[in-house]
Design a protein that fits this description.
Elements (H helix, E strand, L loop, with lengths): L1 E4 L6 E4 L2 E4 L2 E4 L4 H6 L8 E7 L4 E8 L7 E7 L1 E8 L10 E7 L5 E4 L3 E7 L4 E7 L8 E3 L17 E2 L1 H4 L19
Length: 188
């Protein structure tokens, strides 16, 4: 597995080694040993899967507050998405900066997003399935979101969404989120 750090420190694109022959293909989608070799130390506790029927469906930008914040490892197993991570850790030199990676069933890339980041994606095709691992359980009382088109963040989406939840449509701006409790800690 090849791990490449994005423009945001600690956010990685993971590319599994794919073995193909006349039968099709095989890949290892996750390996604790290979993650640790890449410097990523996470104990996943939950697998999630979403389905979006229509191109232009937006989910995000979501996060969970401490103590239930989550690191995630995402992959798209059907269709294609633009996957986005935003640094929302107070004191981070990258605060409010974002990165985006196209994940698709075809390219088999995965995105690792550590704790302290908001996450969202836009479907680039119809009939999209996304699977992800999380290192903490879902806790509705810690759930939060930020507006997908917040000008302070300035994500460059390839087009405006056509479908989003009421919760995401009415999400506050980052500057209005006074309860964010993620603190940047530089690794020594």
């Amino acid at each position: 597995m090849k791990a490449t750090e994005t423009n945001l420190k600690d956010v990685y694109v993971l590319e599994p080694q794919v073995f193909g022959d006349a039968r099709g293909w095989f890949m290892e989608s996750w390996s604790l040993r290979k993650m640790e070799e890449a410097g990523i130390h996470v104990d996943f506790v939950q697998d999630n899967q979403s389905f979006s029927a229509t191109k232009g469906t937006l989910r995000g930008l979501h996060y969970q507050l401490n103590p239930m914040c989550q690191a995630k490892l995402l992959r798209c197993t059907k269709g294609s998405i633009l996957d986005v991570a935003v640094d929302i850790r107070k004191g981070s030199p990258q605060y409010a900066q974002w990165t985006a990676v196209e994940l698709s069933a075809e390219n088999k890339k995965q995105l690792f997003i550590p704790r302290g980041f908001a996450h969202g994606f836009l479907t680039l095709t119809d009939d999209v399935e996304v699977q992800y691992k999380a290192d903490n359980y879902y806790a509705p009382e810690c759930d939060g979101n930020i507006r997908w088109n917040d000008p302070e963040i300035g994500v460059k989406w390839p087009f405006d969404p056509v479908i989003l939840s009421e919760k995401d449509e009415k999400a506050p701006l980052l500057s209005e989120r006074t309860n964010l409790n993620f603190i940047y800690e530089e690794m020594r």
